[in-house]
Each structure stands twice: as C-alpha cells, then as structure tokens.
Amino acid sequence: MKHHVKDLELAPSGRLRMEWAEREMPVLRQIRERFEKEKPFKGARMSACLHVTTETGNLARVLQAGGADLVLVASNPLSTQDDVAAALVAYDEIPVYAIKGEDDETYYEHLNAAVDHKPQITMDDGADLVSTLHKNRREALGAVIGGTEETTTGVIRLRAMAKEGALEYPIIAVNDALTKHLFDNRYGTGQSTLDGVIRATNVLIAGKIVVVGGYGWCSRGIAMRAKGHGANVIVTEIDPLKALEAVMDGFRVMTMLEAAPSADIIVTSTGNKNVVDRRHFEALKDGAIVCNSGHFNVELNIPALAKMAVGAPRRVRPFVDEYTLPDGRRIHILAEGRLVNLSAAEGHPSAVMDMSFANQALNAEYMLAHADELQNIVYAVPEDIDQAIAKLKLQATGIKIDVLTPEQIAYLDSWQEGT
Question: Which end of the chain is more exposed for a tag (fewer CB within 10 A), N or C?
Fold first, then answer.
C-alpha cells in the first residue's frame, strides 16, 4: 500500500482521538452499520480530498466499511492532523497522502496520487481534486461517474464550471444541505474559528473590536460566537439583504475600509479573494490580528502585505506571523491566511461533522446509484436525504417531535377552509 504521512508511530494517538470523536457521531455510526451489511460501494474506486481530521477519519472508515476502494488526500496544506493520517494507514490500511505543513509541490503531488487511483467517485472540499482532473489530468475523467463537494468555496467554483459547460461529470453540493450549512457552517465554523484565534494568540476576546468579513452561514456563526465572548462585532457585506439581516441581529455594519482602523481582530469567511486588501492593511492599527476561515488563503492579500512590510515576517508564536510596516505598525497574520480553525485548532466539533459527513456518505451512495440519470451540473442534496439525516440525529439524541394528525394533513392539503 502506498501512502505519504509524517510518522506512522503517531498512529496510536490518532486512533484514540478518532475514537473520542466518534462518540459524538451517532448518525455516522448508524450509517456504518448499514453499509457493513449492504456494501453499497463494493469495488468502487473513490478518491477523497478532505481535511484529514478525526471526523474525516471516521468518515473514511465508514466508506471503507461500505466496500469503497478509498484513497484520502488533504484538501489544505495546514489542516492535516498527522496522527489521524498515520492511524488510517496503520490500522485501517487506507492509503493516505497528507502531511501538516506540506509545501505546494507536495500538496499537488498528493492530489495527483488521488487522480492516479482512477476514481469513479470524487469527494472534494474546495474542488481542488475536481479542478486537477479537469485542468491537468483529463485522461482520468473517463472513469469518473460523479462526485460530492463539501464547502461553499468549492460549490462556487463548480457552479462556475457548470455555467461555462466545463464540468465533465455531475456533482452533488453537500454544502447546500440544510443539515450541513445550518449546523456545520454556522455552529461548527463559529466555535472552531474562535478556538483557532484563541489557541494561536491567547488574547482576550472580551472588549475587542472583531470585524467579520461576510454574513453567510459561516460568518454568522463567527459573529455570534465572537459576540458571545464579549466582543464588539462589526460585519462587512456586499449583499444588501445579508447586511440588513446583520443589522437586525444587532451588529454594526460598514465597509471593510471603514471598519479596518478600529479593528483589533479581523476574520474573513466569504469564499472570495482580497477581502482584506492593501488599502485595508494600510488602515490597520498597530497590533491588529488578521485571519481567515474561508477555504483558500486568497481572502487575505498577503503578497501585498509582504510588499508593504519592512523585511521578512517574524514568527512570534506558532501560527502567528508579524509583519512590520515602515511606520512601525505591526500586523499579525494567523496560520499564513489559511483556515485558522483547522490550522491553529482542530476544526469543527464532531457533533456537527456527524451530519456533514453523513451527507457525504449518503450522497456518494446516491450518486453511485443514480449517475446514469444525472447531467454534468451541480445538484442540490435530495430532500429525503436531508430529512433522513435530521431524523437520525434527533433519534440519536433522544429528542421526539410531533407528528401531524390525519386532520392536520387534510387541512394543509386543502384550501376551502378559512375564517
């Protein structure tokens, strides 16, 4: 078995941490029990490009239990948990290509290892695997039946491909499932981002002015959790509806340029580039902390900051790079602008990833069963899968909900009855 991980001796730690995470992943456990019996992926080659975390490790084991011939690679150079990568290789014999801190060359070597597997199903987080297949490894496209995509950034890229007619196989946008973005994006990103900022800096959030770039589901969660820590939160937006919603949720809303001079901490999570650009860096005060929880580090224009700075950045703490401007102001970039929640912390809590990865497993199963009926576009998650995951999560937590009576069903289906 081929693999490329940091150190196989880390495997025992990874196995224990995966076991701990699995305790809060009851939906995935139930799916695994069924997959072990039914083997829906028997003989199917699958390549997954995901953040290699404890939760992803449990997803990989579920796919393997379902019969998948799986290869797993990292979807970001800084998000890999090396002990988990080692455990999947040592205990589960899953080929993993992922090392925390790998350089760009190694990252793309790993992506190509995923393509070399000649996958029939791709599972992506950020669409780098899909992009590699379409741009550089088109000879491998013929084997692909379909795929799934985990995150907002990836869905944006894939919809752009589909709009241009460039997408060569169908993709299900797992990110758009209600059981994904309402929970993973909002509560997962909110908690894990603040966790990453605090671990990296050990600063007190209470009393700080925290600027949140965007007010999509991820940014909503970040703003909510920052407010909960006692921060004075400012939201920046380009969408008038989301901006208005942020106002009604009690946040100040302004442009990034207006917000930058007073910002103690800036966090972006938009899926777009240069959200914090040169003009914003020029306006920041001494000691400002800037980080990103969007998938790609392009949200922060770090090359522009590097050109503005005097000399090379100074690594003042793990995951904290200090750039000094000509007038002496110091700007601190966390985790090289990459996802601070996965680079400087452990990523989302397993309880929310339980539903996200249940979506990955069930939608991959759906894709394999229905690929012949689908066109080369981006599809929403089937509503019955979304509902089934929500029901499983409620059942697992012992929560009961009401059921419509026959009279109520008849009322909802009719129009004659009124005041």
Answer: C
DSSP three-state, residue 265: strand
| Edge-to-edge strands, sheet with 69-74 | 96-97, 69-74, 45-50, 121-124, 146-149, 171-173, 378-380
| Res. 302 pLDDT band, cuts 50 70 90 | very high
State the pLDDT at residue 118. Answer: 97
* 314 phi/psi in degrees, rounded to 5: -110, 125
Confidence band for 416, pLDDT divided at 50, 70 and 90: confident
Contact by Cβ (8 Å): 376, 170 = yes
Beta bridge partner(s), residue 233? 210
**Closest CA relative to residue 268, chosen from 236, 244, 241:** 236
Residue 346, H or E segment: none
Q: Is the predicted pLDDT of residue 385 greater than 80, yes or no?
A: yes
Give the three-state DSSP class for 121. strand
Q: List, in sequence order, the alpha helices (H) in 69-126.
A: 82-90, 104-116
Percent of the chain with pLDDT over 70: 100
User: What is the distance between the alpha carbons of residues 84 and 54, in angstroms, rounded to a whole number?
Assistant: 6
Alpha carbon distances (Å) from 287 to 46, 129, 257, 265, 266: 46, 37, 17, 9, 12
Of 153-157, 190-194, 242-246, the least confident: 153-157
50: confidence class by pLDDT, cuts 50, 70, 90: very high
**Average of per-residue pLDDT values in the chain:** 96
Q: Is residue 1 predicted with pLDDT exceeding 90?
A: no
Report the C-alpha gap between 283 and 292 in whole angstroms.
18
Nearest CA among 165, 164, 124 for reference residue 144: 124
Q: What domains can you pick out in the chain, each with its CATH number?
A: 8-180+349-396 (3.40.50.1480), 187-343 (3.40.50.720)
* Maximum Cα interatomic distance, the chain, rounded to a whole number of Å: 76
Strand ranges, E, within 222-284: 232-236, 252-253, 265-268
Q: How many residues does the chain have?
A: 419
CA distance linking residue 343 with residue 52, whole number of Å: 11
Is the distance from CB of 333 to CB of 317 less than 8 angstroms?
no
Rounded average pLDDT over 177-203: 95
